[in-house]
Amino acid sequence: MRIDKDLVAASATPLVLGILADGESYGYAILKRVDELSGGRMQWTDGMLYPLLHRLERLGFVEASWGTSDVGRRRKHYAITPAGREALVERQAQWDVVAHALHQVWRTAQDGLLTPPRVAEGWA
């Protein structure tokens, strides 16, 4: 299943902040974690992740620092800041509202599949 581009974009910030809330990480590991969390159904690219990380850094939601991998390569690590944790809590509350509303719409729509559609008042 392909996830719509708009939905991927809308969920990107809380996903990255949520991943970093578990501990600092680096680009490739974040991409792998998104893949794992989605069961392989969301496949992000470097071209999507790094602009997001840079935007989150400008907003003060993440901090970056250079580290060294096990094989001696330099890599940039990202950690969530207190402002990022606040933003994550706020985004989670927003997504809870959206998920609740969607659940209600889909439940109503599913019930409507078994009965003929209603005609709005004033229309015959």
Concise description?
The protein is α+β, with helices and mostly antiparallel strands and 124 residues long. It is built from four helices and three strands, in the order H-E-H-H-E-E-H. Helix 1 crosses helix 4.
What is the level 1 CATH name? Mainly Alpha
Give the CA-based shape: elongated
Alpha-carbon distance between the two ends: 39 Å
Determine the number of helices (DSSP H or I, runs of at least 4 residues): 4
CATH H-level superfamily: Winged helix-like DNA-binding domain superfamily/Winged helix DNA-binding domain
What name is given to the CATH topology?
Arc Repressor Mutant, subunit A
Radius of gyration: 20 Å
Compute the average pLDDT: 91
Number of domains: 1
* Strands ordered across the widest β-sheet: 1-3-2
| Main beta sheet strand tally, sense and closure | 3 strands, antiparallel
Which architecture does the CATH hierarchy give at level 2?
Orthogonal Bundle
**DSSP summary, beta strand count:** 3
Residue windows where pLDDT falls under 50 for at least 5 positions: none
What is the share of helical residues?
55-70%
Pfam family, one: PadR
InterPro entries: Metal_resp_DNA-bind_regulator (IPR052509), Tscrpt_reg_PadR_N (IPR005149), WH-like_DNA-bd_sf (IPR036388), WH_DNA-bd_sf (IPR036390)
Protein name: PadR family transcriptional regulator
Domain Transcription regulator PadR N-terminal: 16-88
